[in-house]
Design brief:
- By secondary structure, this protein is α/β, with parallel strands linked by helices.
- The protein has two domains: 138 residues, Rossmann fold; 61 residues, Winged helix-like DNA-binding domain superfamily/Winged helix DNA-binding domain (Arc Repressor Mutant, subunit A).
- Helix content is 55%, strand content 12%.
- It has a five-stranded parallel sheet with strand order 2-1-3-4-5, sandwiched between helices.
- α7 crosses α9.
- The termini are far apart.
């Protein structure tokens, strides 16, 4: 049996989903949560096979609940079931650790199939969500290496191009030398170069230094 935890603040939704899942020969509902906080508590207590997670709930939203569950139980399999398709919900939910993303407008059998697929290690995304993710991945692939740098890393790179040492960079930015070294390491990795000299050459080649 696939043990399922329902997390949704609407009682009628929980009643409907619970009744449907009870009719499935391979599923059973082992708990219901009416808030994100309660979802975290029950997930860690019951360790269900699948967690159906709403995103908008009291006390704690589904995204934060997902983060907390995954942080304490990385193997958890969470299926977001929501009405939202906006970027502010989709990407944070997936980045938080949700395995699958479904809409409440999905047919009951589609939710059941998503539960089974997720249980067996697959990721199920609504077509609209898949399109969003693919578009974002394509956009990310089109970025130049230096466009992946944070603002602080760009500052460090430009100071490197001025010939400043780690100590001088640390003094100018009011940060520790150890922190500068971490930034330099990240810069080299993101730019795909082996040393500071190559990083500086990259900066000049791409007109980052004026």
């Amino acid at each position: 049996m696939i043990r399922v935890l329902l997390a949704d603040d609407h009682e009628m939704v929980r009643i409907g989903v619970s009744a449907f899942l009870a009719s499935q020969p391979d599923m059973e509902v082992v708990g219901e949560a009416d808030s994100g906080k309660r979802a975290v508590e029950l997930a860690l207590e019951l360790r269900p096979d699948i967690i159906l997670m709403d995103l908008v709930m009291p006390e704690m939203d589904g995204i934060e609940a997902t983060k907390q569950i995954i942080a304490q139980w990385p193997e958890a399999k969470i299926i977001v079931v929501t009405s939202f398709l906006d970027d502010e919900k989709v990407y944070p939910a997936l980045e938080a650790g949700a395995t699958s993303y479904m809409l409440k407008t999905s047919k009951a059998n589609e939710i059941a199939n998503a539960i089974r697929a997720t249980f067996y290690g697959q990721s199920v995304l609504e077509p609209e969500v898949t399109n969003k993710v693919m578009a974002k991945m394509k956009q990310k692939k089109e970025l130049l290496p230096h466009e992946e740098l944070t603002n602080r890393e760009m500052e460090v790179l430009l100071l490197m191009a001025q010939g400043k040492t780690n100590q001088e960079i640390a003094d100018e930015l009011f940060i520790a030398v150890k922190t500068v070294k971490v930034h330099v390491s990240n810069i080299l990795s993101k730019l795909g170069v082996q040393d500071r000299t190559q990083a500086v050459i990259y900066a000049f080649k791409h007109s980052l230094v004026k």
